[in-house]
């Protein structure tokens, strides 16, 4: 059930009205709505989700009753096994077949009929975080399964995040019946929903058919076409995933919940470290807190820190999908993060030896350096997206090779750019939109106050109606699943 379908909005409107009309029954209303939302995809997978959630709920309660480590290990094992079976079993079997030369799976085998439950990666990480947080006494175990089910299955963020922590969301769930929803909350929630819908419908879904030909046969691309395809996919996946997250947060506001923002204009990042503070923030913080730090973090020397960082990013890549392309994508980001840390250390030592310069000159040099760093890292990010999007490692390698081997030397790039002026201009415009979004979101309170102060209400109403009508008109076209639903 996609956010931009009539079926979802019908479910949402009914849930919203019942939620606000029958305050004492709020938890039950949300629990049923979440079941209907997930069950619309598969009632069997809803039963699986309910079962794994209930067992995790029981094990979390047992943690506080003694033998805590045993119950924690059982809880984590349950969730990892569930995820591994559905997501990685065929990946493991295919790799064993490749290594051994044997055939373990026939076309009519049981294994070929395994279907990945939507949202399984997200709810698995959320359940594991909850178990660990209960074990470390960061959060109290839920007092009823109803509350726990609403916490883990709240339908706006159920399929693709943000990944919620017990200490940040469970207290809100506990106060569900008394949560207020002010007029300001309602307006802000609607604003985020429309913002997300606009990015999904007007950008991501329009880019999807444009991106497809670039990755269909990368060996036939020119160097400029290869870069343009990477640019367009980079903006497609950002618009698609951030749209879902914005809408999820917006729907949360309409129920009185505060879900964390998941994106902060990642393509203005000057390094891999900054990128992961801006891209899929709840996942990167999860990887940091539940993998990187438990492995030792930066506490055991520089080399061990690099190993831990690379291991964490490899797991992040594998979490995204059971393909070597995702593993390589995670490894590349790990290597970029490691390289940046070494580079930043060397740069600080070098600058310590440079004579002082006037403050104005220093600011100018710093600004120019930052612009160059953003430009370079943006293109490094686009290279990594090739592995994320490609159908195979071989295809990704051909694609990347094409990006760096112009057929007639560097001079041919000018001719290629002229021939590809329309999609190249589109990529530049999309980056401009990205910068505008950054500025708008950074100053949205001031902009909103100015908008309401100087623009008459009838004019504001016409603008809102125009945007909504435009989105509705574009929704009538082909609908594309959110990319992260496959994870």
From TrEMBL:
Show the GO MF annotations: acyltransferase activity
Q: Endoplasmic reticulum: is it a keyword of this entry?
A: no
Give GO cellular component annotations, separated by semicolons. plasma membrane
What membrane topology is given?
Multi-pass membrane protein
Source domain of life is Bacteria
Q: Indicate where this protein resides in the cell.
A: Cell membrane
| A GO biological process held by the record | alginic acid biosynthetic process
Q: Which Pfam families match?
A: MBOAT
- The EC number(s) attached to this protein equal 2.3.1.-
Query: Which UniProt keywords are given for this protein, alphabetically ordered?
Result: Acyltransferase, Cell membrane, Membrane, Transferase, Transmembrane, Transmembrane helix
Q: Which family does it belong to?
A: Belongs to the membrane-bound acyltransferase family.
Q: What name does UniProt use for this protein?
A: Peptidoglycan O-acetyltransferase
